[in-house]
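Interim report, section 4.2 (structural modelling).
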Amino acid sequence: AQKVTQAQTEISVVEKEDVTLDCVYETRDTTYYLFWYKQPPSGELVFLIRRNSFDEQNEISGRYSWNFQKSTSSFNFTITASQVVDSAVYFCALNPQGGSEKLVFGKGTKLTVNP
Amino acid sequence: DVKVTQSSRYLVKRTGEKVFLECVQDMDHENMFWYRQDPGLGLRLIYFSYDVKMKEKGDIPEGYSVSREKKERFSLILESASTNQTSMYLCASSFPGTDYEQYFGPGTRLTVT
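Predicted structure of the assembly:
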């Protein structure tokens, strides 16, 4: 079975704090892709990053970084020095190679960054 | 710039009405998707189309149908709207292959009274 778990339903931080959003996935496939999306209050999901199962290098993009660990089936997302504009719902998603190109989404983590 | 558009941001319909939600993408994507998003439940796939006139049921297809007559357009149809179909509906598109990200439209918030 394919499954994505985002255990943190809501997180609230104060601006400039670092925050990590957890994502744990389950799949029997050896080849798969993981994604993070951001959904700001406007409603449109915005693609942030894609990672394939053979690439365990961490990635950094400005204040955003991602830590992929196959050993723990986790693909965590860290925002450094958070800003109010980071307030959104963040979704982690899995697309297994053996699947039919349908994403399996976690239920999302709502992040609120307070000034 | 990549674009997925949905016909309405907000829609209010009465129980029993036939409802059409339209989605158009300008990226020449083969795949198109309809999701509904509800608090605490995340995104759930209703239907998926991988080519013109081709469709596949998602996790919650009951009460919905779809139409894809042209590559760029994917319609979601509620044959007889019910109050439990009040939700946010999101359309997405992508190239074929599991390594491609999906691009999402702005969503349609449907209220059925």
